[in-house]
Design brief:
Number of helices: 11
Shape: globular
Number of strands: 8
Strand content: 5-15%
Largest sheet: 6 strands, parallel
Order of helices and strands: EHHHHHEHEEEHEHEHEHH
């Protein structure tokens, strides 16, 4: 196991679209969704949409089949497998929901690569229909964050909890990937020794560009799945090499290492699809 924790967003990061919008459009309920959206919070709208699907005879199996067709760049799965093979601890923090994420990851055969999934609860109730609820119950308590987080989820608070948990055991280094405005808050939590990978020309990128000095971690942008894989493997490789340098320097009491020694360290793997 390496010293690296990689945290992925899900929508428009692991998959290449918004999972809610994909499902609604594929099932032909866009008009109803647009009517409901101004009247209630997003999670409440999606829970209502699940009731509408159920009442129109759309089964959970029908929903799963649509989710199985969701677009994903062909280099994302190899990137995830490579990171896992190198011993990285992979986690998800997403404003989608557990039903979507688990359905899609199981279909792709990569669910077991993630040690933890944090998302809005999504489950099948006793009546046999999917229910969607908020991660933070904003009807009872606000998460109180002043960053541009949606009322149902502050990803920054989730990252605080993960950091407090893993850093009690080891001095972990983080890589965080995301695209949306909700990914800005967690990005502010990371330290100089960490890396953040915002998707270029998406809301989180725009927020960072307003004042990048607020972000302590190193910023490495990406635009598509191919670049995501390239950047992620590069950063993993940097951390692995730095860990080897520190270990060797401590063990041998050397101050510097030659370039030839650095080149001999293990390189990040590339797993073919």
């Amino acid at each position: 196991m390496s010293n690296i924790v990689i945290v992925f967003d899900f929508d428009k990061t692991i998959i290449d679209c918004d999972s809610d919008n994909w499902l609604i459009e594929e099932l032909g309920f866009t008009d109803l969704f647009n009517q409901l959206l101004p009247t209630m919070p997003w999670n409440s709208v999606m829970d209502k949409m699940m009731m509408e699907f159920h009442s129109h005879g759309i089964t959970n199996e029908d929903i799963e089949k649509v989710l199985h067709r969701i677009p994903i760049h062909h280099r994302i799965i190899p990137a995830i497998k490579s990171a896992y093979a190198l011993g990285c601890d992979l986690r998800i923090v997403s404003d989608a929901n557990m039903f979507y994420i688990e359905t899609i990851l199981k279909h792709l055969g990569i669910k077991e690569y993630f040690s933890e999934i944090n998302s809005n609860p999504g489950y099948v109730n006793q009546e046999g229909r999917v229910r969607i609820s908020p991660y933070h119950d904003f009807n009872k308590n606000s998460h109180g964050c002043t960053n541009p987080c949606p009322p149902n989820m502050c990803k920054g608070l989730i990252i605080d909890r993960i950091q407090n948990t893993v850093c009690e055991v080891d001095n972990k280094r983080f890589i965080y990937l995301g695209d949306g405005a909700g990914d800005y808050c967690p990005i502010l939590r990371f330290r100089e020794r960490d890396f953040v990978m915002p998707r270029r020309n998406f809301p989180v990128w725009d927020l960072i560009c307003k004042d990048s000095s607020l972000v302590k971690a190193e910023i490495h942008g990406w635009s598509d799945g191919e670049e995501l894989e390239q950047v992620l493997m590069k950063l993993i490789n940097i951390i692995i090499m730095e860990e080897h340098v520190q270990f060797t320097a401590c063990d041998c009491k050397l101050q510097t290492l030659s370039t030839s020694v650095l080149e001999s360290f293990p390189k990040a793997l590339r797993v073919q699809p």
